[in-house]
């Protein structure tokens, strides 16, 4: 194992290429530093649109972009697809899973968060969450297969099976998933099936807290619930899930049938936070000061969901905008530190432009703070949502193809990309391997009836 | 289990929704029959462009279309995502894996073929073949990861690792894969890496028979080899692979290093051929007469790769065109049989328009038979290939998006869709689960060096 030799220029390592890491890297690309970006994946994912991949409106390639292509214009940035295995803050070195050791002068940690099943890790298989492109493909597979299985059951038994979808968690992701399932079942799938009626599908959101979209103002919460109900989505608040099984969810003693259960209830920070060996909060987010440094380490920056940053007495939320701003701030601060001009830099301050969540095909709620203050709901909020999301997609190619797919799907109500890819196993699906199948078929007496 | 009740109209069951099955179904949609299409997958795959998904030029959604959306304009067609488990020719019934029993008056079997590893089924994991969207995604993952791993190795060790790709099989698929790997390594990936030089990658085609593109005329075979060599692809004919292992391929005692091995050497017919209980050839293809029926069963049609149909003393090849023509013929014959006008129908005859294979970004070989006879190679053949393939894609949406992606990739040499999705395991990649990682990192003494 050889160490990376010390260059003349300061070395910056960015761990994680989500919103925080990518924005830091693009800013560092302009500075006289040598940058290494480390990520386990080869692509940056535009997470706010991931639910549209899950709902077969967009393809993975529409919302994910290889990290190398985003950054290949910057000659001072190298990318390695790897994982951090250990951090030594004293010698300022990282060890990666491949064995590579990276020395750094400055370190930006932006490894984000993952699903939290609140100690019930066995729920992960029963109710997948939505963080990665693979998650989105898996959710798409399960939702589409639920309709396929219902059609098969009806062909076999002659009775219409129930089609109840359950989304656990009433934050933006849960609301978006539920609205989209309702949409595709009522608008896009009806003409595809001869036996079942996809429009009888019901969707239920189970939220543990007292409100749907808890982070939004009261009036938008109410509008969101109204719009969800208009789509036929049921919402139950104050409902703590106590058990998830194949085909059902339990709230205490009450059993709710579910052909497909999705998880949008909680996230936990990346374990790299604790591994840094600095002060973390109860959840494991790293407490950072006004310059996004953990105490005593002005050379380490923590950005995005992994950072616990307090502003006006409240923790800045773990969403895309603060992560992007933090990444940019950290990179700029490194530039100022290098040139000895950091003393005058203002503290980091999250500039809140607002939040948005779509509810189905043509409604949304938007808490707008900038460039003017307003709480919008309905169609105007949805148009705003569309515009902002296309604008923030990285890469012209993606913007163009996303716009085209949306026009295709929303305006002309045409087919999305309803491919079922991956395993075709489903409960009750007695799948046979080809050979086994051939062997059985080769027997002369056929087991018909 | 209830049987499907006997309707007034003849019932036709189509098994398999590849080129044969889909073309049969679209023709049956116009007839006074009730049709059930059975397929294990929810989508029809345009296999001639699958290698472009594998090579990150196209996305799965560009070349695959849900069977339901292709057929949803025909009210007399139902689709079920299921698998045939048993066929009873006497009572004219099929049993599906779900337990559903389908009665038929006419049956079209078009379940195609799958990879054949000539008895070495353990090679499947070491050298994936290309038949499905999942195969394409897996090949893409392996090819892209080979470059990522080389970059990591160079970052760690400082020496440039070899980048040899081996494609086993010199038919159209092997030639297309090899040409495309050469292209992406030389044209698209060079600006993405800081340490390795992707353009030093070598690609080798190993073919067991004496010629590359054995089914093509001699002059086109020679042109193809010329064009492959111009791209830096090595070709070895008469080379029988005797062993495949992690990182190598053996021809007798000779060991060839390989960072990624792909299989394009052989196919075998679906086991449903033998399961029909009619006469099959040595490979397992069903021997069919001039009306595509197995002997003694005028109500059963076998179409596409699964059929062994002799014309002018030769077996019609297992490619898209004959399958499409067979599917259409079988459906038309069913129409004539129903209306009592079948006696005058001509025997099936494959109308051979020609064959084409691309060789990289702007060359191809084309054996054109219709509308005029010519053997073309080079750029003109490539333009012909482009035109024909866009024209035959089912669905305007797909044609449009494929055209756009090609323009993007070929004309402007821009990024394709180089996403690595799925497992990130690779030989030598010591991957750690998050928890294990956290546990290791939490220990205070760090194992650096």
UniProtKB/TrEMBL annotation, chains A, B:
So what does this thing catalyse?
A: a quinone + NADH + H(+) = a quinol + NAD(+)
**What Enzyme Commission number does this protein have?**
1.6.5.9
Domain of life of the organism in this record?
Bacteria
Keyword Transit peptide belongs to the record: yes
Q: What are the protein's UniProt keywords?
A: FAD, Flavoprotein, Membrane, NAD, Oxidoreductase, Transit peptide, Transmembrane, Transmembrane helix
> Which intervals hold domain FAD/NAD(P)-binding?
11-327
Q: Report what the protein is called.
A: NADH:ubiquinone reductase (non-electrogenic)
Origin species, per record, is Granulicella cerasi
């Amino acid at each position: 194992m050889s160490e990376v030799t010390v260059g003349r220029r300061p070395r910056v390592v960015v761990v994680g290429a989500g919103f925080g890491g990518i924005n830091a890297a693009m800013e560092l690309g302009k500075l006289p530093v040598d940058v290494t970006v480390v990520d386990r994946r080869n692509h940056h994912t535009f997470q706010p649109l991931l639910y549209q991949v899950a709902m077969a409106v967009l393809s993975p390639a529409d919302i994910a972009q290889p990290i190398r292509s985003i950054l290949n214009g910057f000659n001072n940035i190298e990318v390695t697809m790897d994982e951090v295995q250990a951090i030594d803050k004293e010698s300022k070195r990282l060890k990666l899973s491949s064995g590579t050791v990276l020395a750094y002068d400055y370190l930006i940690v932006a490894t984000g968060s993952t699903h939290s099943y609140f100690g019930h890790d066995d729920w992960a298989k029963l109710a997948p969450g939505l963080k990665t492109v693979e998650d989105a493909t898996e959710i798409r597979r399960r939702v589409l297969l639920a309709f396929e299985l219902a059609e098969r059951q009806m062909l076999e038994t002659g009775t219409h099976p129930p089609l109840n979808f359950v989304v656990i968690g009433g934050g933006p992701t849960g609301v978006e998933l539920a609205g989209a399932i309702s949409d595709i079942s009522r608008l896009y799938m009806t003409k595809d099936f001869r036996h079942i009626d996809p429009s009888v599908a019901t969707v239920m959101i189970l939220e543990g807290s007292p409100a749907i979209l808890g982070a939004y103002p009261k009036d938008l919460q109410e509008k969101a619930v109204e719009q969800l109900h208009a789509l036929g989505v049921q919402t139950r608040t104050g409902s703590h899930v106590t058990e998830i099984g194949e085909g059902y969810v339990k709230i205490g003693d009450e059993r709710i049938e579910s052909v497909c259960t999705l998880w949008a209830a909680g996230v936990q920070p990346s374990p790299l936070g604790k591994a840094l060996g600095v002060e973390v909060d109860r959840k494991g987010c790293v407490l950072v000061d006004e310059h996004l440094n953990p105490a005593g380490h002005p050379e380490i920056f923590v950005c995005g969901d992994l950072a616990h940053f307090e502003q006006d007495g409240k923790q800045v939320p773990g969403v895309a905008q603060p992560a992007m701003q933090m990444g940019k701030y950290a990179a700029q601060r490194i530039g100022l530190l290098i040139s000895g001009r950091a003393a005058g830099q203002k503290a980091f301050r999250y500039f809140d432009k607002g939040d948005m969540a779509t509810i189905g095909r043509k409604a949304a709620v938007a808490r707008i703070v900038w460039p003017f203050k307003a709480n919008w709901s309905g169609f105007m909020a949805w148009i705003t949502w569309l515009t902002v999301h296309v604008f923030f997609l990285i890469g012209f190619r993606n913007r163009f193809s996303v716009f085209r797919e949306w026009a295709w799907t929303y305006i002309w109500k045409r087919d999305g990309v309803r491919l079922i890819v991956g395993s075709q196993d489903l409960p009750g699906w007695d799948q046979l391997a080809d050979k086994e199948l051939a062997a059985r078929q080769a027997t002369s007496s056929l087991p018909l009836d």
